[in-house]
Write the structure tokens for this entry.
Amino acid sequence: MKSTRYPRIAFRSPDEIEARQSVLLREHVRYCINHSPYYKKTLSDARIPFEAPMGELLAGLPLTDKHDLEKDNDEFRAVALRRVIDIVTSSGTTGQPTRIPYTEHDLKRLAYNEAKSFIGCGLTRDDVILLTCTLDRCFIAGLAYFLGARYLGAASIRNGHDTLEGYAGIIRRHRPTALVGVPSFIRKMGGYLREAGLNPAAASIRRIVAIGEPVRGRDMKLLESGREIEETWGACVYSTYASSETVTTFCECVAQQGGHLHPDLAVLEIIDDDGNPLPNGKIGEVVLTPLGVEGMPLIRFRTGDLTFRISGPCPCGRNSVRLGPILGRRAQMLKVQGTTLYPPSILAALAAMEEVSDYYVSAHSDTALSDRITVHVTLKRDATICSETIASRLRAQLRVRPAVLIEPENTLRKIVYSPASRKPVRFVDRRGI
Ligand SMILES: [Zn+2]
């Protein structure tokens, strides 16, 4: 497959960007019809407005969702099995993981994607990047960042799954200049170093690429957790967004004002509940059409994640559209006491409470129209806070007052660090059970 790369495309005018994307999108749709059994079946009889402007062309294409992927997983593979070199899995909606086959070309494309993201947030080949995300267990993130660092020419330290003590030793000995990891782990690591009498801000790390959890809120300001990371480490934190199915990632640039889309790698839409495209600034579901993917190409893939789009020139000089922070997942929307909210805002409020050492949130159905949420926490050893105070603090931030249960660490850890899940479980949805 031909590469779709145009390294400086984000610095072109919006019209030039759209013209280039239109060409790439048409090529992509033709590739899907010719190679993907699923799209061959779905689209070969459809009247696709190939010559129409991009908005119209997109509107003439069907959406693809996670249920389609689960139901017809193998039908989405567009290459012979012998051309697949890595199999990634993504947790599906029914608990059955979805297989995503990557070819050599797809991994190179991903390396280019991550290298562009690293360059955007100021990293160069002189950097030493500490990767705290694992490269195994069929995850793609760790491998993607490793390949991106390699493409950039920077040095990686692939420390993956390790203890805080192990990490402290790595930071002391190898003096990384940048770190990639999940914000809650980075905060924990900062706390550990401080308790050990060390000052994380005096370490060598100046840039932190935050994955998997939001560090910014709806107003684009850093959440308490993000602010604490910047302060503790004396480093800048850059938010990212990624989805394994679309082989595409977004990362903030040095201006820290939303994750840049790489226009030669994907087309971004935000849609409402009925599938209609939404204008900039309106919250809706992220829909991505990754360009130039060979193994499992997708058209208008509904990620299930909710946020908004930002356009207009960025202070960094790029004109590519940017993605706001992920505010929640569509399926996890909660209706509590007449207010709509999403688990990430509750989790962010809990993460910001100094007395709380670990936590999760569970949801139950009260009635068909209303949910009930319970916040489960364990407290730090010297904390004196009571559940009433935690509930009041949450009410001040969320406008709803959840039930709060203080639980022994062991009981809570069994849920949060369940062996059945690859990631910490911080939202347990018992609605409809
Ligand atoms: Zn920018």
